[in-house]
């Protein structure tokens, strides 16, 4: 028997926001409307799904958002969604307006919800939206490029003052447990030392390297470190005491999550939004959209859970080559 075509699709953003999420929402909405599929924005992620916070899109709903950071649909973390009863209630809310399928834009935490809903009969497609770039099997996630450029901009500014005062500057960046932001930003901004979960944290090694830098007549130094590894203010004190390098620590924080999405993020988000709708149209669910080179593809969410993101060692080696 021929499967009925999907008639109504919802789109939500979940977890930490990321620049470019709006471009993805816009692409989902426009692709649906162009195909004659009803499309709803779901406010506040899975929380809004559970509460029935739906907003029917028309052609004007997503205008002037392609260039705007944050998410027009708002986002929330909603651990309660792990409870099957809460998910049943969310499905009931969807049935009330005839909502058949969902596009879930967010990090891997959001993919759990998407997979569980698919198992319960609601086809869901995940789109990777997170600045961390910590999702396996996709070259990039939406928001990573913009956040990276924000960090590089901050590092350029810190370099100015670090140079003027002949200081060592330590910058803590986001990424959760993933070092992609730190290593890419460090390479782009000419940092001496990168510390991530991949490199491991060895305070004595950092101090030794900075001593060597000072001895080789380097006037200032930049250290980039992923969050949750150590207290960077304490590290700054230890470095200053041990090396004589006057040292300052900075935590860049949530400004990494905001700002006008880069062209690269907008392109990625637009292409992934289109792909997600095409997959739902084909009657598929439980998949996530991924980027492989120039291609936008998909793979089972389950497969992705079995993998771990591999940060290329070569990137770390290259930082050392340019020290
Ligand atoms: O996942 C995105 C991210 O910004 C991480 O880099 C960071 O660890 C976390 O979210 C911060 O979460 P919150 O916005 O809840 O403080």
UniProtKB/TrEMBL annotation:
Protein source organism: Kandleria vitulina DSM 20405
Metabolic or biological pathway, per its Swiss-Prot or TrEMBL entry: Carbohydrate degradation; glycolysis; D-glyceraldehyde 3-phosphate and glycerone phosphate from D-glucose: step 3/4
Entry binding sites for substrate: 130-132, 167, 174-176, 227, 248, 254-257
Catalytic reaction list: beta-D-fructose 6-phosphate + ATP = beta-D-fructose 1,6-bisphosphate + ADP + H(+)
PANTHER family, sorted: ATP-DEPENDENT 6-PHOSPHOFRUCTOKINASE, PHOSPHOFRUCTOKINASE
Protein name in UniProt: ATP-dependent 6-phosphofructokinase
MF GO annotations: 6-phosphofructokinase activity; AMP binding; ATP binding; fructose-6-phosphate binding; identical protein binding; metal ion binding; monosaccharide binding
Annotated ranges, domain Phosphofructokinase: 9-280
List of catalytic residues: 132 (proton acceptor)
HAMAP family assigned to the protein according to its UniProt record, in alphabetical order: Phosphofructokinase_I_B1
Binding site for Mg(2+): 108
Lineage: Bacteria, Bacillati, Bacillota, Erysipelotrichia, Erysipelotrichales
Regulation: Allosterically activated by ADP and other diphosphonucleosides, and allosterically inhibited by phosphoenolpyruvate.
């Amino acid at each position: 028997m021929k499967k009925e075509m999907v008639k109504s699709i919802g789109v939500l953003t979940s977890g930490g926001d990321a620049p470019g999420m709006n471009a993805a929402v816009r692409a989902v909405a426009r692709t649906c409307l162009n195909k004659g599929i009803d499309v709803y924005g779901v406010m506040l992620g899975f929380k809004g799904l559970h509460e029935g916070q739906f907003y029917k899109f028309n052609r004007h709903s997503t205008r002037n958002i392609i260039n705007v950071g944050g998410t027009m649909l708002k986002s929330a973390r909603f651990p309660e969604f792990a409870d099957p009863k809460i998910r049943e209630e969310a499905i009931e809310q969807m049935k009330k307006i005839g909502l058949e399928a969902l596009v879930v834009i967010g990090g891997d935490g959001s993919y759990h919800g998407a997979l569980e809903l698919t198992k319960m009969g609601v086809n869901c497609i995940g789109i990777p939206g997170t600045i961390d770039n910590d999702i396996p099997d996709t070259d990039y996630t939406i928001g990573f490029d913009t956040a990276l450029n924000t960090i590089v901009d901050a590092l350029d500014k810190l370099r100015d003052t670090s140079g003027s005062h002949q200081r060592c500057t330590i910058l803590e960046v986001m990424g959760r447990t993933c070092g992609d932001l730190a290593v890419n930003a460090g390479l782009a901004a000419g940092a001496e030392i990168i510390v991530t979960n991949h490199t491991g944290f060895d305070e004595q090694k950092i101090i030794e390297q900075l001593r060597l830098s000072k001895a080789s007549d380097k006037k200032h130094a930049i250290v980039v470190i992923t969050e949750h590894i150590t207290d960077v203010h304490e590290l700054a004190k230890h470095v200053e005491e041990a090396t004589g390098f006057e040292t300052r620590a900075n935590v860049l924080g949530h400004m990494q999550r905001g700002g006008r999405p880069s062209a690269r993020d907008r392109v990625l988000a637009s292409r992934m939004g289109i792909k997600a709708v095409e997959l739902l149209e084909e009657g598929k669910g439980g998949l996530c959209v991924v980027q492989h080179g120039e291609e936008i593809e998909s793979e089972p969410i389950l497969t992705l859970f079995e993998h771990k993101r591999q940060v290329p060692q070569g990137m770390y080696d290259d930082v050392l080559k340019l020290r």
